[in-house]
Amino acid sequence: MAVSRLFRSFSGLHKANARIQAYPFGYKHSRALSSDSFNNGDDTVLPVLIVGAGPVGLVLSILLTKLGVKCSVVEKSKTFSNHPQAHFINNRSMEVFRKLDGLAEEIQRSQPPVDLWRKFIYCTSLYGSILGSVDHMQPQDFEQVISPVSVAHFSQYKLIRLLLKQLENLSFKFCTSDGLEGLNHGTFQEKQLLMGHECVSIKASDDFVSVTASFLKDGKLMERNIRCNILVGTDGAGSTVRKLAGVDMRGERDLQKLVSVHFLSKVLGKYLLNERPGMLFFIFNTEAIGVLVAHDLEQGEFVLQIPFYPPQQNLEDFSPQICEQIIFKLVGRELGDINVIDIKPWVMHAEVAEKFLSCDNRIILAGDAAHRFPPAGGFGMNTGIQDSHNLAWKIALVVKGIAPSSILNSYETERRPIAVFNTELSIENFKAAMAVPAALGLDPTVANSVHRVINEGVGSILPSELQRAILDGIFTIGRAQLSESLLNENNPLGSSRLANLRRIFEEGKSLQLQFPAEDLGFRYLEGALIPDSDGGMSAPEGPTGRRRDYVPSVVPGARLPHMNVRILSDTSSEVVAP
């Protein structure tokens, strides 16, 4: 049984390797609650309740179920969104997915061919001049030497569908708030995913956590109380669980505001697929500026990110009709089959929760509930998936009565420094992304400074229409730097700017996609498994925002290096070890 093997491996490692300590950080025998409070035999108390059915919460529910831990999930949304959202899955997350009944292989089969998304392209329009391009895949990325699986480009909503399929195979029941007749309202049972249930209050005691979830039933607001031993908040950047637990965020807020436009156009997809395939398109011209994410060129599915400057701008400025016109300006021509699906504003933050655990380790945060990054580098979802992987086996040890609840301290000890590091790395990568428009004469920091002056300085006393006119005028002047008469090799200023742009691309100083050293080479300097001395446990090199190669290491706290293992008794068989 996978659970028993896991537990035998854990105890065996303590005996076999004198350099390693089990039950390290914060371990106290007097805190061994797993034998009574965390596993008291009360069938009315669910061992684990997960709030939030995004990729992080769903992965955690799958891992816990496979480890024999009873759990259920509640999600405030009534349906799952088809907005693509996150889309890049890094090496380590794909390694985690290899353990989920062929999930990694299914993703690789279903994703677009790598040649359609390996590049970032910088241009004046999708039909216009190319300013430069960066290929983010290197030969070693396909050799499966440092990892048995490669990175993937796969939209979040498609990943959620695969995760739900796995939960269905594990006998989970999916229910909406309108379909609760068959459920026992007195006892909240395991293996349930309840949609349309919003966590509205939390009360922790010495014996359990009481969660109140509200839901609409026949148009009437109702509530149900759920008692659990452990509550895990995986409910996103605006986490209700985090707020109810009184946990603050630390870091930089409001780095940038954007509007995300999800649209379909097979005409555009076919053109880009044949003429200039890529994952991201950074488009700069005198009429509009935006970043286009090509989620699937074959299906013609895209998301356009547009800078947003409220309150001078509001969502009414981004109606479907207006967004179509913006898209046409960035494409360079009209599209007859364009279909705008969804428009939503969002704010970029770089913050980490001050703590991941509260209420004597009964309330735990993971994923975006614990950390929110700029999307540069795709660390958000990936860090969250790896949070779940780190957390699941520790919860299993506690619930099964094998380890005291204090072992959960190692989750925060290990994962929070990784979140802080990835936050810093995402900021550096975001700054690298801003270097490109700055080289073209469009320094985003200037636009943000002007916007702050209008909102907070002398501009705030001006009428709103005048504020908007000033902002629009400044943006028009800025975009004039992108005119063909200026941005060409025959113009001394334009030539200098284009040369600077080429230098940024050649030196790897633009936005990067892959970070093998950080993806696979991160280390836990203390936590569940640590050396019995401090020798060699130096802090990692700070983030640079540039791609660095992964160097395999066998020091405690590092990922075990990948290698192919051949079974000696049968040389025709080969087992790949992650």
Count, helices:
14
Low-confidence runs of at least 5 consecutive residues: 1-36, 181-185
Task: Name the CATH class of the largest domain.
Answer: Alpha Beta
Q: Count structural domains.
A: 2
Q: What is the third-level CATH name, the topology of the largest domain?
A: FAD/NAD(P)-binding domain
Corresponding CATH architecture of the largest domain: 3-Layer(bba) Sandwich
- Overall shape: it is globular
Characterize the largest beta sheet: strand count, sense, and whether it forms a barrel.
9 strands, mixed
How big is the Rg? 25 Å
Helix residue percentage: 25-40%
Fraction of residues in β-strands: 15-25%
Going by CATH, the homologous superfamily of the largest domain would be FAD/NAD(P)-binding domain
Description:
This is FAD-binding domain-containing protein. It comes from Pyrus ussuriensis x Pyrus communis. The protein has two domains: 54-437 and 512-521, FAD/NAD(P)-binding domain (3-Layer(bba) Sandwich), CATH 3.50.50.60; 438-507, no CATH class. Helices cover 32% and strands 23% of the residues. The protein has 14 helices and 23 strands. The protein has helices at 2-16, 55-66, 91-98, 103-110, 156-169, 240-244, 266-275, 320-331, 379-399, 409-439, 444-456, 464-479, 492-506, 516-521, and strands at 20-21, 46-51, 71-75, 88-89, 119-123, 130-135, 152-153, 173-175, 192-195, 198-204, 209-217, 220-233, 249-264, 280-284, 289-296, 301-307, 339-353, 357-358, 363-365, 371-372, 530-531, 563-566, 574-577. A hairpin with a 4-residue loop joins strand 15 and strand 16 (301-307). Helix 2 (55-66) packs parallel to helix 9 (379-399) and helix 9 (379-399) runs antiparallel to helix 10. The longest helix has 31 residues, at 409-439. The protein is globular. Residues 1-36 and 181-185 have low confidence and may be disordered.
